[in-house]
């Protein structure tokens, strides 16, 4: 066989093999496409379609009078299934729709949107996100009337994906207390501590994974989300505002590192204000909860002398306030250390009352040595009995654990007893110190501080938090009498004379504790003032901490006490219960109609039906109404909300007003703490420009 014939045969064999391979490929394609097509489509569908969560609406956080501290407002992303609409509806409306999209978003041309939509329809894409920008509720209502979209989800293909944003009407007020929660479920404050209640329970629905994202499939199997519960706090917005402003001014004036203020009701333990401000390059912000957490747990200094004197009077009830101690020249050797008093040259002879008023370290140390040097465990046992060695079980996460030594510890030295007596070699958080002072104000009853009063849903209370007693009687009545006299003396004659008020009595104690750096005490101080008022009938207790102030006067009486005074003055001025009773009071008119100004038509009709109030809702096409109060019924009038126009929110609740103004993309500032909007800074009907600012006044 010649070479030429051999080559031809080989070529023919290779060609035949290629033909057979090609036939095999064609056969396999036919088998996959037609014979096994249904099975593979089902497998593909199973992989593309899956259940995904439908997030619940987060609950609201309220102040003590119902003002909203945090709420969720709805926003939407616009997506589109261009394959849903029939050819006639699509072709007739695509040009107008593209023009409206270009005018609304102002980011791309009309031609861009037209090509984007037509190409997606041609390619059979069933999910097309038109724009990533979120729109508000009013924009959603407007878009729902656009060409193609007006046919709805099933016939027009429009998809409005709901996204909720957390909104705080009072801005940075109580920011750290309200707190936050991130996508990883980490956070701080009430948002984090009560996340299980606020978050609700997510639902689920089928979503199809297609090019461009996930398209929801509503087949009737979806599970609706259970929206979160609301929580009502004990925070008083007015007192919170005063506390933060007073603290901020003090920190700025002294260039301090951080500070905190806590104010609570004596009888109930309800916290009315809790402010925390830390120093940053841009000023002071609420960056940590120093009042409760570990970073605020410090050696309390002289405010702890109250606990030492309580232990002394309980252990040796025969000690009288008039008994005297020679404090000498202001220097006293204890083992191998020297203890000093603030006054150069010393105070000389002082009574027990004066020792406390002038905050004499030497006087307190000598009293402790006289009575507890042979039995220091008795002193520590009293501190433990007072509950100073244990946490309070506070409602917010992150409460610091007290640090308290005992004689069995390896770090208990010969000077530890006297050091602890004046507030060193132990650590407490400000909240734990305040709870102790509050017990003295509360006739010896130590109660647990609370910051959340109720958990509710749709105005139905799910859980209430009542006052919980931690210690029925922290000490004897005789001891209480002595302690109160000393606390009042501090303000009347001692280290806090600068906050003496002619209107009401204040009882309290200053504190100035040296700080530790690198294991050694340095000339930096943590200053404080803790007390209560009015001293003769206590209503509020309060503690102020200013850490590391700079300047000449860096004592608790100079730095922290004035903050206490400013807050106490405000509380006294607005609380008529602390003033003399009015001789006459106007009796309420029980037959008067409820004070309703405006709101949502469906909500108001529902409420009127529930409580049996005659009303005339002769309106069917308006979502929002004004209410006119007639003699025996409520008359509803239209109150339309128009796009790009300032709405009329007077008479509405704060939540309704925020909902409407937020959907109009307006920046809202809230003033006052009433239930309804009394005034608004912009007239209804005024044109809205980008991020128009409006102030609403509550009354």
From TrEMBL:
<keyword id="KW-0378">Hydrolase</keyword>
<dbReference type="InterPro" id="IPR050515">
    <property type="entry name" value="Beta-lactam/transpept"/>
</dbReference>
<dbReference type="Pfam" id="PF03793">
    <property type="entry name" value="PASTA"/>
</dbReference>
<keyword id="KW-0121">Carboxypeptidase</keyword>
<dbReference type="InterPro" id="IPR036138">
    <property type="entry name" value="PBP_dimer_sf"/>
</dbReference>
<dbReference type="InterPro" id="IPR005311">
    <property type="entry name" value="PBP_dimer"/>
</dbReference>
<dbReference type="Pfam" id="PF00905">
    <property type="entry name" value="Transpeptidase"/>
</dbReference>
<protein>
    <submittedName>
        <fullName>Transpeptidase family protein</fullName>
    </submittedName>
</protein>
<dbReference type="InterPro" id="IPR005543">
    <property type="entry name" value="PASTA_dom"/>
</dbReference>
<dbReference type="InterPro" id="IPR001460">
    <property type="entry name" value="PCN-bd_Tpept"/>
</dbReference>
<dbReference type="InterPro" id="IPR012338">
    <property type="entry name" value="Beta-lactam/transpept-like"/>
</dbReference>
<keyword id="KW-0472">Membrane</keyword>
<keyword id="KW-0645">Protease</keyword>
<dbReference type="Pfam" id="PF03717">
    <property type="entry name" value="PBP_dimer"/>
</dbReference>
<feature type="domain" description="PASTA">
    <location>
        <begin position="637"/>
        <end position="699"/>
    </location>
</feature>
